[in-house]
Amino acid sequence: MSSLVTMTRRGFIKTAGIAAGYSVLSINLTRRAFASALNFVGLRQQSVYKTDAEVYKIRKSQDNPMVQKIYNHETGFLHEGPCGHMSHHLLHTHYEDRSARVNALKAKGYKLAL
């Protein structure tokens, strides 16, 4: 029993008070740090949007004159429009599940860096 540390009631209250003080302070510091980080993110986001608006005159793809020329109903290559057969055939991608082939290569001992 001599190896155990005994604590008096006064010592316990003192330790509990210090622990409570640190927890309250850390919560407030954490709250302030979180608010500061959110403020920074908001300012950064505003500056990025402002710079984009100033630098890039064409911000939407449908406003790009080259895209409008391609989709022109009279002379454009994709004259059927954005949802036409040719634009769907040329511009849309198709998903192909290759996981079986990757697993087969791994089973043979190939090391793939994916």
From TrEMBL:
Residues 35-99 form the Iron hydrogenase small subunit domain. Keywords: Iron, Iron-sulfur, Metal-binding. It comes from the Bacteria. The keyword Glycoprotein does not apply. The keyword Transport does not apply. One of its GO terms (molecular function) is iron ion binding. One of its GO terms (cellular component) is periplasmic space. InterPro entries: Fe_hydrogenase_HydB, Fe_hydrogenase_ssu, Fe_hydrogenase_ssu_sf, TAT_signal. This is Iron hydrogenase small subunit.
